[in-house]
Amino acid sequence: MAISTGDTIPEATLVRMGAEGPEQVSITERLKGRKVIVFGLPGAFTSTCSASHVPSFIRTKAQFDEKGVDEIICVSVNDPFVMQAWEKDTGAGDAGLTMLADPAGEFTKAMGRGFDAPPVGFYGRSQRYAMYVVDGKVEIMQDGDAPGQCDMSSGEAMLEKI
Amino acid sequence: MAISTGDTIPEATLVRMGAEGPEQVSITERLKGRKVIVFGLPGAFTSTCSASHVPSFIRTKAQFDEKGVDEIICVSVNDPFVMQAWEKDTGAGDAGLTMLADPAGEFTKAMGRGFDAPPVGFYGRSQRYAMYVVDGKVEIMQDGDAPGQCDMSSGEAMLEKI
Known about the structure:
Chains A, B: GO terms for molecular function: thioredoxin peroxidase activity. Helix content of chain A is 30%, strand content 31%. By secondary structure, chain A is of the alpha/beta class. Chain A has one domain: Glutaredoxin. In chain A, the strands form three sheets. A five-stranded mixed sheet of chain A has the order 5-4-3-8-9. Chain A has a two-stranded antiparallel ribbon with strand order 1-2. Chain A has a two-stranded antiparallel ribbon with strand order 6-7. The two termini of chain A are 25 Å apart.
């Protein structure tokens, strides 16, 4: 079942590329007692994710800061090496966004948001969404964008809702 | 069972990023009647693959041409979007190497060369190897490099054997 507004985020281990290499991150520990935006997307280095979704949160980062949001996390079913390269390529790291890899799709499956698209080489990838999570509970869920679109799940759309 | 010298390469579909988007590639059709180097590695944007393995075939590409090798193919269990970005980043495309994505690990499994390394976010990835394939049959197999090393499977090591 897909996690939605009012639900508690399920536990899953994500991977962040640290200075010393890949580090395991418990998502429930990371969200505890904090206000966090988590947005999920199909893949690093794909057009809509690189040209629309990530930039929309880079553009709005300062406004989320003003609203008291502690962290903005981007999750994708890629490995931490790819996420690190993409973080540099998009400028997401410099902008203060956190890129978390979900290499086995553990978080994405637990969220009920996996999908396959074999013709483009996607297996167990994440649907596009953005959510506002307060102390581990989903306060706002923005999803339902058509393929190749990033409207509902964009930084600007989320900003209007908070 | 791992495919080795004397074996015929098993059929598998790989994915190449073309001008119009991802294209399916039958490996057996691609190898038929041709002399091809195929090298496999753990992942795009990882250190040994980016700094050693791919550059070793860029350096030796012209010498393989002189020996009548028709194509040099790099295979990794990544999606075609990541492989395209990595092809640009390493200069492999400009050098004339072909990057083929094995997003579901179909080829890597059929080759008997998959491995997992959960701490770094690798699942069903490819061990490091290089092989010289003539008309779909393995003539030379170069593998057995220690993790983080690229000696046996390098372009120079393969060049010496042909």
